[in-house]
Amino acid sequence: MNNKAMLFDYVLHLADNQVIMAQRLSELCGHGPALEQDIAITNISLDLIGQARLLFQYAGKLDGRDEDQLAFLRDVHEFRNVLLVEQPNHDFAHVIVRQYLFDEFNFLNYQALCQSKDEDLAAIATKALMEVKYHRRFSRNWMLRLGDGTAISRQKMQDALNDLWSYPGEFFEMTGGEEILAKAGIAADVASMKPTWLANVTQTVKEASLVIPEGDWHQTGGKKGIHSEHLGHILAEMQFLQRAYPGQTW
Amino acid sequence: MDDKELQNRFQAQVDAEIKIEPKDWMPDAYRKTLIRQMSQHAHSEIVGMLPEGNWVTRAPTLKRKAILLAKIQDEGGHGLYLYSAAETLGISREEMIEALHSGKAKYSSVFNYPTLNWADIGAIGWLVDGAAIMNQVALMRTSYGPYSRGMVRICKEESFHQRQGFDILYTLSRGSAEQKAMAQDALNRWWWPSIMMFGPHDSESTHSSQSMKWKIKRKSNDELRQDFIDATVPQAEVLGLSLPDPELKWNEERQHYDFGEINWEEFWSVVKGNGPCNRERLAARRKAYDEGAWVREAASAYAKKKKEQTIAG
Ligand SMILES: [Fe+2]
Ligand SMILES: [Fe+2]
Fold first, then answer.
1. Which of A105, A174, B88, B116 could disulfide-link B22, Cβ–Cβ 3.0 to 4.6 Å?
2. Which ligand is nearest to the CA of B77?
3. What's the farthest any 2 CA atoms get from each other in chain A?
4. Any chain B CB within 8 A of the CB of A58?
5. CATH homologous superfamily for A3-244?
6. Distance in Å, CA B292 to ligand 1 centroid
7. Cα A181 from chain centre
8. Nearest to B41 by CA among B146, B119, B190, B156
């Protein structure tokens, strides 16, 4: 892979994380547990779509495709998002735990990218970081509320944490290209973020009266295009119009 | 002061265009009418999120997805303002939501129609929001202060809703034959339900004359409907799409469009619960509410705990 292809792949990975997370959250629009949370979750989804668009537009500059071709005309194996973001909205506990684990990572990742030698990436990260700060505050507060709310809510949150705990490990794995880009000061060195991420999450989980699940085995594959069964369904729905009526203007 | 005097003073205040505020004395029936109308309005915003939400995950481009999400989010916000405005009349949001879920409270029947293709999202924005704007612009001058102020805030956002709907249809109507067909199909299905949104003819409308006297309503159903049709027909011409009413024709003498008779049988049937999606819409609202119960309980338990800790500390 040459540098341009590596960068393209890397930017797509960042964009795919945001767009798939946004797509999952958008499924909840109109179905939230209360109006306030419905609005807040839609807001996060909107922010993430905005970030995905900027990233796709940048990736498109390297490759010639536009944001919609990249979002709607790639198949499952071409997506580079981490597996966590494609996990379903099983219940509100899963939604919150998934969001929180992702937000802590997204925050650190964008924070590092603000220093990227790639000016486009640094500019996108600077804007995104402001938004993700708010997302993390929202999901962290709900971790505490639901973890430390009632016995039922605590159980649901612990179940969600147990179910999802095998996914974040993948955040910190680096592809070959990512390592090269990180050495060049372009990509974020995600491997080095793990201790900070874990310390932050452990603190929140403790405050929320929950426990970190045991074991350190984790799922992997998303960043290399090997996904869970969920992504195919997400894309079938998301890409329907572009696939059914190719080449049209909407 | 006796009741008669209070009544007179109240009506004088209304007649003088001085807004009625939550702490002011008001006739019981005025309060009841407002609760019914404002909660129905709030429910319409919330139930209205569902047919549009049906296409969020399938929006054809990222830009359209973002616009649609922002639009639906606005409607949620409108629901919030309206519930809080109605709460100033002494009813809680929970009570209003329970009345919706039990079928006691109504919402706009137009949301009981399905969104079957992408152009329906355009048709809803252009026609359904368009009709809602007619109604809401008139309500900015309604006599109850919190309702009137809520409407001012809401109307600011509504014009964007109508524009994005029109823009979807405009793009489709200039697109492929398939896209044009989608747009026409959507108009064929959404035109009459939008016209019905203004409710029965003035002569049939049960609450109208009292509401006009109290200035809760500022324009009659038929006036608003005519305003809407007059504003919308020329826009349909810009789109190059036809409206499914063969009797629709400019009347030079009246300086208004004439239009065909509404199918009132269908109207009442949908109001009574027999529209294509009445069951689904209510079921979706109930499901979200029921599944959210543990979340709301946990949040209030947590808030209570925190408060006690603060007091103890
Ligand atoms: Fe609205
Ligand atoms: Fe609207």
1. B88
2. 1
3. 54
4. no
5. Ferritin, core subunit, four-helix bundle (1.20.1260.10)
6. 23
7. 20
8. B146
Contacts of residue A215, Cβ cutoff 8 Å, sequence gap at least 6 = A165
In terms of Cβ atoms closer than 10 Å to its own Cβ (0-12, 13-18, 19+), residue B106 is: middle
Q: Do B73 and A35 touch (CB under 8 A)?
A: no
Question: Is the Cβ–Cβ distance between B110 and B197 less than 8 Å?
Answer: yes
Distance between Cα A146 and ligand 2 center (Å):
32
pLDDT of amino acid B192: 98
Q: Determine the Cα–Cα distance for residues A20 and A73; give it in Å rounded to an integer.
A: 14
CB B151, CB B140: distance < 8 Å: yes
Contact indicator for A173, A223 with CB cutoff of 8 Å: yes
Cα B153 to Cα A115, B77, B137: the distances in Å are: 41, 10, 11
B292/A92 touch (CB, cutoff 8 Å), yes or no: yes
Residues written for chain B = 313
Q: What is the DSSP letter of B296?
A: H
Q: How far apart are CA B139 and CA B152, in angstroms?
A: 9
ipTM for the predicted complex comes to: 0.97
Residues of B in contact with A37 (CB under 8 A): 292, 295
Nearest residue to B44 (alpha-carbon basis) of B114, B123, B121, B129: B129
- Closest residue in chain A to residue B174, using alpha carbons only: A249
**Mean of pLDDT values over B268-277:** 96
Nearest by CB: B57 against A26, A46, A249: A26
Q: Which residues pair with B258 in a beta bridge?
A: B249
Express each pLDDT in B5-49 by its tens digit. Answer: 999 999 999 999 999 999 999 999 999 999 999 999 999 999 999
pLDDT digits (tens, 9 = 90+) for A98-114: 999 999 999 999 999 99
- Quote the CA–CA distance of A228 and A222 in Å, as a whole number: 8
Instruction: Read off the tokens for B243.
Output: 């409206």
Share of chain B above pLDDT 90, in %: 94
Alpha-carbon gap: A233 to the closest alpha carbon of chain B (Å)? 11
Q: Give the bridge partners for B20, in sequence order.
A: B144
A241 touches chain B (CB under 8 A): yes
Number of CB atoms found within 10 A of residue A215's CB: 8
